[in-house]
Amino acid sequence: MSATLVQKMTEFTNTNLETLYSAEQIKTRVAELGKQIAFDYADKDLVVIGVLKGSCVFLADLIRQIDLPLAIDFMAVSSYKDGTKSTGDVEILKDASQPIRGKDVIVVEDIVDTGLTLFRLLEILGSRGASSIKIAALLDKPEPRIKKELKIDYCGFQIPNKFVVGYGLDVAGRYRNLPFIGVVKNPHIA
Ligand code: IMP
Ligand code: MG
Prior knowledge:
Mean pLDDT: 90
Helix content: 25-40%
CATH class: Alpha Beta
CATH architecture: 3-Layer(aba) Sandwich
Oligomer: single chain
Bound molecules: inosinic acid, magnesium ion
């Protein structure tokens, strides 16, 4: 990374971000979720499906806290374009590579906002003969969920209706690599 990009990132972090959860707090919570999942899935055939791109950091940490044999897969969907507003439309950009018939699936998401993305994804996965499908989401914004009711089986943190970045979450494609989660004060200068 060039000095200019490092400077840009530092400046953004210092001026436009308020830490919501530190790397340490996230680590502790992810370990708790992993332990719970390992307990619940002890005799199951677990497949963890990450929703790209936002879930990649959470998934990488979570699976290492699940002390069980498991498989991973990925799907990519687009629900947000470059801004901070939901378009309402969900497009499958990349499908999972393995069948899930007879498997116990956990879909891993970074954040549930309106719930539209996961709701649609569950409709699609629901027709593929899995034994069970559950949801793990690092963050849940319960407040703006006007459209869809979803049961989040494993939730990291419930957060206020603010736009956040870091630990996989982006604004306009950036800041996924921040090790903590921060509230963006002004998304327009991201
Ligand atoms: P939903 O369909 O409204 O639930 O939107 C879920 C998707 O929107 C997430 O997977 C994220 O990609 C994105 N998203 C929603 N809220 C935020 C946020 O605060 N920061 C970054 N991305 C977000
Ligand atoms: Mg996402």
